[in-house]
Amino acid sequence: MKAHELEKISAEILTELGVKSMPAERQAEVAAGLIVHFNDIVLEVVIAHLPPSDVDKLNHSLMDDPSNFYATLAEVVARIPNASLLIEKAVATELVALKTQFAKLKE
Amino acid sequence: MGELSLSNLPERPSHKKIESGAAISPEQTFFGSRLNAAFENADRSFSKQSPVWQKLPEATESGNLGLYTDSERFSIDTLAKDVGGIDELSYKVCRQAASSGIPNIHFPDPATMRGQLSPEQRAGVTKKVCTSIKQTVAGAAVASVSGHLFGELGTKAALREGFELVGSHGFVAALLSGALMSIGFEVHKDYKKHLLRQRMSFVTEEMNNEPDSLKASALVNEAESIIQEARRYNFTDAQTLPLVYACRAARMRLEISLHKKKHEATGDADKMLFLLNKSRDVRIDIPVSEKNKTQTLLNEIRTRHSRMGRGMSLKKLAESIMFGALCGTIASAIGTGILEAAAPAIQHAFDTVAHQAGLFIEHLTAQGAHEMSEQGLDKTAHAWLKQVTQKIISLLPFHQSAVSAAAAPARQTEAPEAPGIN
Description:
The complex is a heterodimer of chains A (about 110) and B (about 425). Helices cover about 80% and strands about 0% of the residues of chain A. The model of chain A has no long low-confidence stretch (mean pLDDT about 75). Chain A has one domain (about 5-105). Chain A is mostly helical and about 110 residues long. Chain A has helices at about 5-15, 25-50, 50-65, 70-80, 85-105. With about 425 residues, chain B is mostly helical. Chain B folds into three domains: about 10-185, no CATH class; about 190-305; about 310-405, no CATH class. Chain B has a three-stranded parallel beta sheet with strand order 2-3-4. At the A-B interface, helix 1, helix 2, helix 3, helix 4 and helix 5 of A face helix 11, helix 12, helix 13, helix 14 and helix 15 of B.
């Protein structure tokens, strides 16, 4: 990830979460952790809503046609009803959870 | 009161109930009969010299038989050895108490009994437990303070002796049922949820009370167990989830407190990284059944990501997902035939991408989504929709299959209900 992207993302996330200013290198470290964390959540939520046939399809794509995996993934996600809402809900929930927990940790 | 001995015990003690205010769970009426078989061989010899029996007259008068060691006159281990095991002891105590008209039996927390807590802590726990029992269990009762070892066995023994769980509320009842569930009894899901909430509240409160490191460690484990239980049963309703989060937060705070003592990691960055690390362990918003399916695929993706290096990227995965989700939203809107009416939904999708998930995932859909969202917010729905459509069209060649899939007729089977929050 480029440094300026990290800075931008960090500032938004950290403000949202109530994290005070910190050295740039630590900020980058935290931002990277958050991005991985939320990427994981998005991925998990989506895969959890896939019918078994699409899970198989993705598995096959991973094995046999990895170069098209991203396209296959987008394709199956597109068929999930209300996928964007599900993702939004999961992300928002996790955001609230992190904020709550972080506030508690700081008490 | 007459002499107390095993020889004059009635064949079957009078039926007693644990009364309280909560709803009765139908499954619980079967407990007694199901336990009979397990206890058929339990009626073995028993020492009449046991301190338990020596205390019975006093206990009967006061209405309580307390096995906790305020006076440290005996220990659980001694008792257990005396009667051939904790199981046997529980059984005998219950049987004797039931036949003697003792309404309340307080089983001790094993940690308390084993002297792992200081006298002050022990007194505090005992007081809390007794207060809890008095507050929550009216009338005849068998109370268990531990959902694990002694309480579990004591509960079984109590049931064997004709006590019936009618349903209750409060910490003690929660533990009782926790014990029952842990030994394989089915409890109505709503009741289970109700009890879990109480366990969670109690453990959370305890964790927030700055326990010492020994107790903290036990509480952390207990919290983990409760959270896992919530996860197992997918208790993620609006009433339960805040408690889960509170419990999780308290657990993490406790853990970080322990962590701090070891590593002096006190900065915001350390706390957040610690939080992220831990929160992955205890997420509950994916049902277990789905979790397995998810996990297998995720593991495969991650393995490949790690193995292939530049071949796979989480960023690309997220982009593909968000793009697919967006295509689905657009296609759904198109499917309604009323594009303008669907504009808010589409805008919402972009909003989500740009402002919600967009906070955390780089370039979620394609470059420019964020700018488009910002521009679109100030435009009329029609103009916004047109702009969005143009953008989607511009992306078509790249993700044609996704758009095609989204535009195809809705599949026959609905996706599972959204996990997580209700």
